[in-house]
Amino acid sequence: MWFMATLSKNSRTCSSGHRFIKSSNCPTCPICEAAKKSPGDLPKLAAPARRALENFGIKSLAQFAQHSEAEIAQLHGMGPNALGRLMEEMKAKGLVFREK
What is the pTM of this model? Predict the structure, then answer.
């Protein structure tokens, strides 16, 4: 019966109707996040990097290349691993960052 108290105490429902349990105050639904994919033709990225690009309005590598490397590196959630993966994909498609 102890699990019932824990379940009701930390149980949440997202706007899509998914029920999930979280111990932190983070409002992100893990079910919705798992269903999301990287936008456009961007490579698969970790959720923080993907959300950073989505919030900045970047949905394709062409849009990504319209910004400078410094602008992208300053985005909250964009780490060196994600930036490196995106740069490799840009190089493969013949794209380069915009100059400052």
Answer: 0.60
